[in-house]
Design goal:
Shape: elongated
Helix content: 55-70%
Strand order of the largest sheet: 1-2
Low-confidence stretches: 1-14
Number of domains: 1
Distance between the termini: 47 Å
Order of helices and strands: HHEEHHHHHH
Structural class: mainly alpha
Mean pLDDT: 89
Number of strands: 2
Oligomer: single chain
Length: 268
């Protein structure tokens, strides 16, 4: 477990590091995937409509003033699923608290930015603040204005359907595009570099299952479309990779500068 590595020397022969996340090629690939999927969902809105329709139970409208589909999302009324959703949404916050506590302990033991675990922890926390925090909840959910499925005419609401990535005035606060919970839950992937390389494959499938469960619950409850949860999760990974590339690039540049200064001082 990553909680117990507090010295400057590695645990045995375990190798840590950000790996592909700090590579510009990975960042470019994630950006291409994000924009490609956005274009796909926007060009073929039936994907969102059909997938959300799988969880919607239509019913007859009573005294409907406008033409719309009446009904509800029955999964949102199941107490056990609502409890599961409540539990899952706090997992990223618990992860943040654990990483902060680990960083404070590591700093108290003498570790600084030059140690890879301090850098990885700092990058993960920065990605959480910039991704799910600032980009998703601070900007996209507040300004893009896509109404939630349950609020659209297709699924018993009062607003017209808005495709993914399209700006709208139908919603002004806590809107559908993109999913904040999917973005937050995808952040647990950013904790993988805190484990040794040899142990990471054991965590990928449980993490993927948790992220998938969170995303499906948001769609099944009528709170998000498929595009919202997919692009929300990818947004966090894009921000994490961008932060890793920037920080590791600046760190390498600083180390090269220090080596050059040291070499010049030794030559004098």
């Amino acid at each position: 477990m990553f909680f117990y590595r507090t010295t400057l020397t590695p645990c045995g022969t375990a190798r840590y590091g950000l790996g592909m996340w700090s590579q510009p090629a990975s960042l470019c690939s994630l950006l291409v995937i994000w924009f490609s999927l956005t274009i796909l969902f926007k060009s073929i809105p039936e994907i969102d409509k059909l997938f959300s329709g799988l969880f919607f139970a239509a019913s007859n409208c009573i005294k409907a003033v406008i033409v719309r589909t009446c009904g509800h999302f029955p999964f949102s009324s199941i107490p056990s699923l609502r409890m599961l959703r409540s539990i899952l949404q706090y997992l990223p916050i618990i992860g943040v608290i654990v990483v902060i506590g680990m960083m404070l302990r590591d700093c108290a033991s003498g570790l600084r930015w030059s140690h890879e675990r301090i850098r990885i922890s700092s990058i993960a926390l920065a990605a959480f603040a910039l991704g799910p925090g600032l980009l998703v909840n601070g900007y996209m959910k507040s300004f893009i204005g896509r109404p939630r499925p349950a609020n659209t005419l297709l699924f018993g609401g009062e607003h017209a359907f808005v495709p993914a990535g399209e700006w709208s005035q139908a919603c002004f606060y806590n809107c559908s595009f993109v999913s904040g919970e999917a973005a937050g839950m995808a952040w647990i992937i950013c904790l993988l570099p805190l484990w040794p390389y040899r142990d990471r494959h054991r965590l990928i499938f449980p993490m993927a299952a948790i992220i998938t469960a969170t995303a499906l619950l948001r769609v099944a409850f009528g709170r998000h479309y498929l595009s919202d949860v997919v692009l929300g999760a990818l947004s966090t990974l894009v921000v994490f990779s961008a932060t890793a590339c920037l920080c590791e690039g600046l760190t390498e540049r600083r180390e090269r500068l220090h080596k050059q200064l040291a070499a010049k001082a030794a030559a004098l």
